[in-house]
Amino acid sequence: MNFMIKAVRGLSLLCGIVAAALTATAVVVVCQMVFVRFVLNQNTIWQTDFVTFSLVGATFIGAPYVLMTRGHVAVDVLPLALGARGRWWLAIVAATLSLAFTAIATVLTAMFWMEAWENRWVSESMWRVRMWIPYAAMPIGLGILTLQYVADLAELLTGRSRPFGLEAPLEDGI
Question: Which of 46, 91, 148, 157 has CB atoms 3.0–4.6 Å from 163's, for a disulfide?
Fold first, then answer.
């Protein structure tokens, strides 16, 4: 169990690094695009597509890292209002529903990716990028996000982590 959780955390960390690299690369390409357009007075062909696909890809691929670090926006009014047992059950239900959603989304986006691959879709811009490349970020990111939810749920069920990451002591034995 520990190996699985550590492996998923390592994968989520790698996703965070890839997402940061995609974002940084997009910033550099935007700067290059501005230079080419306004200083050299030339047209840009691939830059807009690249930046769009990179930032969307960073969003999907970075999601497992955000979940692992609890970097998302959270409203913890209800968990704080509940007792330890209610907080634990709420965390289990929330993690299970989130796991189900991401698993379904992984399958659906994998089917979408496969359709782009099989039909050899390309973008409508002059760059004509093969769409399976940017579309791959969806099933990859969501698949690893699903694994991160499995790891989080396993940590909750085995008592390795507190519900919602709250450090309050669990007074009723959960």
Answer: 91
